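Propose amino acids for all 265 sites.
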């Protein structure tokens, strides 16, 4: 459904948007849609070649700024992003990794890796920008940031932490924040999800394949951001699990236990 723009909606034309995790999936889809709206883009992820390929497809001003958010010098990275077009209007924190391991087999270093990329990287970038910019923070959380799901102890913890940080930030000071909680989306997230050994899962889960098409997800994210929504939930079946979690937790606990932690079915 196409929504008619309201006069108070954010107009993305000319806006300077820094997208982390822009080399694939939700970040890439957002870059494509924002380029169509003539936003100026700063694209970050590890794979410089994927970012360059994407940049060549986009008919807008683009700065490719590759970085590994596990090891990045966040002060230098943020300074480079600010310098690219002389400011930042919006940051989309989309970089992230998934998890496929049970708590009983998962060493702390796997939890640290998940927290570094999914939680500490957005926090570090935000900390660098807050003193110099009032950029709108768009945070790609997850339904696993609202409730637990088997095989995702670390992932769910990182996304709960992310929601806690950004929700608190926006009540602490006047920073525009949109937290996005998607259910499953058709991306490569299950391929790169880390297992107990720290290696990539390397399997495209059936539930992921049946998820929301990535362009649909990106369009709904931008619609929520344009309306300055504080929280956007984009989900199918997971939405019902979430309502059960909220209003009928005993049923949620019974149902969530039945999901396979590897396939997500
Ligand atoms: N797909 C879903 O079902 C789903 C559901 C809920 C939430 N999410 C969230 O959506 C976000 C995007 O994921 P996606 O589904 O689009 O998966 P994706 O296609 O695997 O995208 C993940 C992005 O994160 C980047 N990334 C991973 N590790 C990085 C690192 N160390 N440094 C810099 N960039 C890194 C990847 O780029 P490089 O490999 O080039 O570094 C890639 O661009 C994640 O935060 C994820 O948790 C996804």
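Proposal:
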């Amino acid at each position: 459904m196409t929504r008619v723009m309201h006069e108070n909606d954010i107009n993305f034309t000319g806006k300077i948007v820094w997208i982390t995790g822009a080399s694939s999936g939700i970040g890439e889809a957002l870059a494509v849609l924002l380029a169509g709206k003539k936003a100026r883009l700063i694209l970050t992820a590890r794979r410089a070649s994927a970012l360059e390929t994407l940049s060549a497809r986009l008919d807008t001003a683009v700065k490719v700024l590759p970085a590994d958010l596990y090891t990045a010098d966040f002060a230098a990275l943020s300074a480079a992003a600010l310098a690219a077009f002389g400011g930042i209007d919006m940051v989309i924190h989309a970089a992230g990794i998934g998890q496929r391991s049970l708590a009983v087999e998962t060493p702390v270093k796997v939890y640290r890796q998940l927290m570094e990329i999914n939680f500490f990287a957005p926090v570090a970038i935000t900390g660098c920008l807050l003193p110099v910019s009032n950029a709108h923070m768009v945070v790609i959380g997850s339904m696993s940031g609202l409730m637990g799901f088997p095989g995702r102890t670390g992932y769910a913890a990182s996304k709960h932490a992310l929601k806690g940080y950004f929700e608190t930030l926006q009540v602490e000071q006047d920073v525009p924040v949109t937290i996005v909680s998607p259910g499953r989306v058709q991306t490569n997230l299950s391929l790169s999800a880390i297992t107990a050994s720290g290696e990539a899962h390397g399997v495209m889960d059936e539930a992921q394949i049946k998820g929301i098409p990535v362009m649909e997800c990106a369009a709904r994210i931008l619609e929520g951001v344009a309306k300055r929504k504080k929280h956007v939930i984009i989900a199918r079946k997971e939405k019902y699990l979430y309502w059960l979690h909220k209003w009928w937790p005993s049923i949620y606990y019974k149902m969530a236990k039945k999901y396979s932690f590897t396939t997500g079915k």
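Residues 205 and 263 are 5 Å apart (CA to CA). The chain has one domain: 16-257.
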